[in-house]
Request: fold
Amino acid sequence: GVAGGFHLADSMSLELHGSWVMGSVKQDAIKFVRQETDSLIDNPPQFKANADINFTWAPFYGKISLLGEGILHFDTYLSVGPGIFATDAGVNPAMNVGLGQRYFINEWLVARVELRDYLFIDTRDGQSDLQNLLMLSVGVSFFFPMSFQYEYQ
Reply:
């Protein structure tokens, strides 16, 4: 997936996010057991892609001492927004909420870890069902411009 964001303030941003599946691993044995025990619908959805726009707020900021040799800055953020979710049955409106942390390696490079929950209604075989997909992602972010100066007003 890819994302691009614009910071409205140090702790708030708008982010446009999209992801897709280039290939998937089929877990036929697990699907067979779940279908036989009626714990999964007969035709389970297969994720294809999603896109969303999120409002992100980072209310917590901290520093970690790296063995007395340096300081690693981080923030914890909450994210929420609407979007679309595509499965093998079609494209559906979606909503998501996320919790994540950013670790600032330097002025422009950031390591991210995020837990995001997507909710959407998937219609297949004449039945509508609320789907809940929980995603854990790890990634890197880049800030542009790569160098800047704060202006105090």
Q: What stands out?
A: Helices lie at 28-36.
